[in-house]
From TrEMBL:
Residues in Aldehyde oxidase/xanthine dehydrogenase a/b hammerhead domain copies: 211-306
Domain of life: Bacteria
UniProt-listed Pfam families: MoCoBD_1, MoCoBD_2
InterPro entries: Ald_Oxase/Xan_DH_a/b, AldOxase/xan_DH_MoCoBD1, AldOxase/xan_DH_MoCoBD2, AldOxase/xan_DH_Mopterin-bd_sf, N-heterocyclic_Hydroxylase, OxRdtase_Mopterin-bd_su_IorB, TAT_signal
Organism, as annotated: Niastella soli
Gene3D superfamilies reported in the protein's UniProt record: Aldehyde oxidase/xanthine dehydrogenase, a/b hammerhead, Aldehyde oxidase/xanthine dehydrogenase, molybdopterin binding domain
Protein name: Xanthine dehydrogenase family protein molybdopterin-binding subunit
Length: 760
């Protein structure tokens, strides 16, 4: 058994109380000072900070209700998190009722869905909450039956005393248990004794999903609700000058057209307050169709923006961000990136003497990789409901980071936080896009202005052209070999618009004696945001493609080269800040090698590519098998090996990996957002290519490394290495290397075929 303190000093405390009508309520409560100011730090939290604030309610009729704290967008936390409580509580899973909790940063913490943190952050505290409740119920039964506590056992929501034959439900003792002090020391179950965790459970929302029950923000309705839309500038680098709403106001169902400022001049933004356009032109009416048609009647003139600076309270303190004026184009971006790549850059890490090693090398391999902006393209476009009065505010919709949105909303509306109610709906996709709540703030300001309940809706075109994209990246990799083709130095220099993607302390850092990592950035008025596995999604593509080419030059099998480097990193590591565990990294490579039959002769008909990557505390490796169909590459099979520690819900975890594989194939093959004179050249799916059902692999075989390590991330880690594995498979199928994303555009160029500007 694992001993655990249920009161982890200062950070949080357990509370018990009596429910109305009898019953037990167990909750973790955070002191206000224990909040985390910046979600980007959550990957680096020390273990003692990983505290949960979730409710367990047990009613007299033995219904156990668990409030899920984290917003759900398909990663299945609505099922997986309650499973952790049910495990330690020794509850019957069939008796569990799960509800999405409202935003409450005292009782439920930051409630941030992102960074692959949900299960990792809540693992131990949820176990403690379940175990504490179980112990209190045992003590209540022992007192009632007048028997020793150690003689009372539990199973599936029942309490038993074998010697007397007495038994009772949790619910029958819940009221008495509420008066028992929270145990200071609790015993957690051994992993080998798990009955709920590590066993697949069905999604608790499956029936609602398949039967079309209202779940999403777009489903939400409120009496007297109006619809609002915003007319954004037609290009980045422009702002509203004048407008004539005369014709629009004559349209049926239109209530108002007005100008609205989002942030006041000089407003200091928090880390997730990113927005693209600050001066808004708003149309409000009765229905979506009426508002869309009225918006087309607006007569608007626009002005170019000038260079400006904004202050952002970011990780490590405040920073000043430059927003350049001008209408930017992809062609100019590429020219600037080539220019900046030749200039000195910021040194991020240096081991040994890389300059001398390159100077004395018998052979130097150098390759440059590029990737475009990417749009998130959540299937449910941005939307939010708001009803704001002078006294209070109710906001409802899809949101990843309510805990970081509430302070901004409070400041903008000039309402205390306890007068703001945030309800989270299920999200139709997130991927980082819904961590930036400008659309919530916009809805709230519009409601306050028109003094009515309002739902703000973005069209697909609004969403795709608004910004908050995956940045545009480039990186140049160099490797130095001696006369015997041994790797003696490694250099990566990466840049981007407006940030670079380099993780300086990740593999192969720590495995090469002479190592140099550098980065540079170009300011832009095109806004960016977190995109599934930020930075890693490009870094893995470039790094793993380069390692594959390096292995070929060295005459080594690509998996063997990686394993040799990882062995060096384990036995004789270079440097002090290596982020990864070499054993776990090698573990996924060995597992995928075995499960894919990497060197088996029956697989020779496939063009095979491999890649592995570490991010968000987990390890992922893929083998991608490509065949040519009608002159086009098709990914027929993918083998995946994942080490994310204990897998709470295996079916759900497998689904998440499968989704990451499909998402990775689609983005690496087709994803591209380009600009001309500030305007996005793709504004809907007729021009922004997405993967289709017929292009999904016939087989995705997922394997998890079996260990008893506490859970680490899973939503993002399987995504980045798909890009590299696909590029390496394409090389073996076409005999040409792929340095520029999207790969299908590159394939068409190499095949001498014209690029398809449309997605059909």
């Amino acid at each position: 058994m694992e001993q655990s303190r249920s009161i982890p000093s200062r950070r949080s405390f357990l509370k018990s109380s009596l429910l109305a009508g009898g019953g037990l309520l167990i909750s973790f409560t955070w002191f206000p000072g224990a909040g985390i100011a910046d979600p980007s730090k959550m990957n680096d939290l020390p273990e003692q900070w990983n505290e949960l604030n979730g409710y367990i309610k047990i009613t007299p009729d033995n219904i156990i209700k668990i409030l899920n704290p984290n917003p759900e967008f398909g990663q299945n936390v609505m099922t997986s998190l309650p499973m952790i409580i049910a495990e330690e509580l020794e509850a019957d899973w069939q008796q569990i009722v799960v509800e999405m909790g409202p935003h409450d940063n005292v009782k439920l913490g930051p409630q941030f869905t992102g960074g692959s943190n949900s299960v990792r952050m809540y693992w131990k505290p949820l176990r403690e909450a379940g175990a504490a409740a179980r112990q209190m119920l045992i003590e209540a039964a022992a007192q009632t039956w007048n028997v020793p506590v150690e003689e009372v056992t539990t199973k599936a929501g029942m309490l038993y005393h074998e010697k007397t034959g007495k038994s009772g439900t949790y619910g029958s003792f819940a009221s008495k248990a509420s008066g028992i002090p929270i145990p200071k020391n609790i015993t957690l179950k051994k992993v080998k004794d798990f009955k709920v965790v590590r066993n697949s459970q069905k999604n608790v929302e499956s029936l609602k999903i398949v039967s079309g029950k209202p779940l999403f923000g777009l489903d939400y309705k409120h009496e007297g609700m109006l619809i609002a839309m915003i007319q954004h500038p037609p290009a980045f680098g422009m702002k509203l000058k004048t407008f004539d709403a005369g014709e629009a106001l004559k349209m049926p169902g239109i209530k108002d057209v007005f100008r609205q400022q989002l942030y006041e001049d000089g407003y200091e933004q928090a880390g997730f307050d990113t927005r693209t356009f600050n001066d808004l032109l708003v149309v409000v009416g009765n229905t979506t169709w009426e508002v869309m048609n009225a918006r087309k009647k607006l007569k608007v003139t626009w002005d170019p923006i000038e260079d400006s600076k904004e202050t952002i309270a970011a990780r490590g303190g405040k920073k000043e961000v430059v927003i350049p004026g001008g209408l930017e184009s992809t062609s100019t971006h590429l020219e600037k990136m080539q220019e900046y790549a030749k200039k000195p850059a910021q040194q991020l890490r240096r081991d040994g003497d890389p300059e001398t090693a390159f100077k004395n090398a018998a052979q130097v391999i150098e390759r440059t990789y590029n990737a475009p902006f990417l749009a998130h393209n959540c299937m449910e476009p941005m939307n939010f409901f708001a009803y704001v009065t002078d006294e209070k505010a109710l906001v409802v919709g899809p949101l990843q980071a309510p805990g970081w949105t509430e302070p901004t909303l409070s400041k903008i509306l000039q309402l205390p936080a306890d007068k703001i109610e945030i309800q989270m709906t299920r999200m139709g996709g997130g991927f980082g896009r819904r961590a930036y709540a400008h659309y919530l703030i916009e809805a709230a300001l519009i409601s306050k202005k028109v003094k009515a309940p309002v739902k703000l809706i973005y069209t697909r075109e609004d969403d795709m052209t608004y910004g908050i994209y995956r940045p545009m990246y480039t990186a140049t990799y160099r490797a130095a070999l001696d006369a015997n083709k041994n790797l003696i130095a490694f250099h990566v220099k990466g840049g981007g618009i407006p940030e670079h993607a380099i993780h300086a302390n990740r593999f192969p850092a720590g495995a090469v004696d002479n190592y140099l990592a550098e980065g540079w950035e170009i300011p832009s008025n095109i806004t960016i945001g977190a995109f599934r596995a930020p930075r890693s999604n490009f870094n893995a593509a470039a790094e793993q493609s380069f390692l594959d080419e390096l292995a070929e030059v060295m005459g080594k099998d690509p998996i063997d080269l990686r394993l040799e480097l990882l062995k060096k990193a384990k036995e004789n590591p270079v440097g002090q800040n290596n982020e990864y565990d070499a054993d776990r990294y090698a573990g996924v490579l060995n597992l995928v090698k075995e499960k894919s039959g990497w060197n088996n002769t029956e697989n020779k008909k496939y063009s095979r590519g491999v890649a592995a990557y570490f991010c968000h505390n987990s390890y992922a490796a893929h083998v991608v098998d490509i065949v040519m169909q009608n002159g086009r590459p098709y990914v027929e099979r993918v083998f995946s090996a994942i080490d994310c520690g204990i897998v709470v819900n295996p079916d759900a975890a497998t689904n998440m990996v499968e989704g990451a594989v499909v998402d990775g194939i689609g983005n690496s093959f087709y994803g591209k957002l380009s600009h001309k004179d500030g305007a996005a050249e793709q504004n809907n799916f007729n021009r922004y290519r997405m993967i289709r059902h017929s292009e999904v692999p016939k087989k995705i075989e997922v394997h998890f490394v079996q260990n008893d390590i506490d859970p680490t991330g899973l939503g993002e880690p399987p995504f980045p290495p798909v890009f590299g594995a696909l590029a390496n498979a394409l090389y073996r199928g076409t005999n040409k290397r792929y340095y520029n994303q999207p790969y299908f555009d590159e394939f068409l160029k190499q095949a001498g075929k014209p690029e398809n500007k449309r997605s059909f």
